Amino acid sequence: MPTLDTPFASLELQRQPHQANEPLQAFDAADEYLLGHLHEQGIEAGSRVLLLNDNFGALACSLDGHCQVTSSGDSHLGFLALQKNLASNGLSGDTVTFLPSCETPQGPFDWVLIRVPKTLALLEEQLIRLHGQLAPNARVVAGAMIKHLPRAAGDLLEQYIGPVQASLAVKKARLLVATPETKAAPDSPYPTRYRLDKPALELVNHANVFCRDGLDIGTRAFLPHLPRHLGRVRVADLGCGNGVLGIAYALGSPQAELTLVDESYMAVQSAQENWRAALGNRPVTIRAGDGLAEQPADSLDLVLCNPPFHQQQVVGDFLAWRMFQQARAALVTGGELWIVGNRHLGYHAKLGRLFRGVEQVAANPKFVVLRARK
């Protein structure tokens, strides 16, 4: 297992979800650069450090015991990685607190270390929430691999924090050092909202929600073909995003018992607000989770899923395959998994390895809707 060696610690770290023969590391040169910069500048034991988007806990684990750390991010898998990496390295975690991105960190903070996220709207919302949370002479430093560092990230830092100085590149990583200035309290453009005609809904979307400005084309292809049930069926919207699939299904199946789950805290927050707006106090379970890993076996009759094809900047079908496996374990015999996917991903063949029957429900030139029966 690769080791992260920095002036603060030597650590063995794993990504989440863990897979055998993992080809990717749980840290990169941007983590090393941020920690090296922090050490060079000097940090006192009582300093309060805010970490934003510490993907798998590399920064928090390194700083545990050296300062007071608040780690805030939008990934529940990232939170699980932090917990597991603290434990596997024999760290107490007593000086580390995790805060979901749907909550505002409470300063004042002496240092803010930022891993620039894939979604710049998330970065913007995080920078907006820093207003009034910085200590005098606080330092704000963002880091990323150069190939994942858009110019707009520096523009956002300058807009909401202050002048930005870009570092030299080190091992294909770069830092953006922002000098805080006194600025008027900013207005956040988030959450966004958009309307649907069928079903008639207005949907709230917090900053890190996929396709927050309009319905994604995969879900658009799926919605007209959702099944309807009159009985008390148990249904999960797996990777629910803003909750649109689960809500649309619930509107057509008034006795169904719904569970909506996503690994993004902002998605869960959006789904909760959208469910209340559309369905009032109708009972529902909406939670952040590692897919259906916590769902009891044989406890669902139907799973709806528009699976993701990336984790942060990494593209692939590993997460989708894992979700299909989780769905099979959670479904009763005869239960069904309904998905939408790009034609070229070959989900029909993949599902055929797990389920006894796979049928194409609908198709267009880009997407297919599939039904797999356990």
TrEMBL record:
Subcellular location, principal: cytoplasm
The Gene Ontology terms for molecular function here are: 23S rRNA (guanine(1835)-N(2))-methyltransferase activity; nucleic acid binding
An example of a Gene Ontology cellular component annotation for this protein is: cytoplasm
Q: Which reaction does it catalyse?
A: guanosine(1835) in 23S rRNA + S-adenosyl-L-methionine = N(2)-methylguanosine(1835) in 23S rRNA + S-adenosyl-L-homocysteine + H(+)
Protein localization? Cytoplasm
Q: Give one Pfam family.
A: RLMG_N
Q: Is Cytoplasm set as a keyword in this record?
A: yes
Q: Which UniProt keywords apply?
A: Cytoplasm, Methyltransferase, rRNA processing, S-adenosyl-L-methionine, Transferase
Looking at the record, the residues that make up the Methyltransferase small domain are 201-371
Record's superkingdom?
Bacteria
Which InterPro entries does the entry link to? DNA_methylase_N6_adenine_CS, RLMG, RlmG_N, RsmC/RlmG, SAM-dependent_MTases_sf, Small_mtfrase_dom
RlmG N-terminal domain location, by residue? 1-181
Annotated PANTHER family: RIBOSOMAL RNA LARGE SUBUNIT METHYLTRANSFERASE G, RIBOSOMAL RNA SMALL SUBUNIT METHYLTRANSFERASE C
For this entry, the protein name equals: Ribosomal RNA large subunit methyltransferase G
Organism the protein comes from: Ectopseudomonas toyotomiensis
Q: Which gene encodes it?
A: rlmG
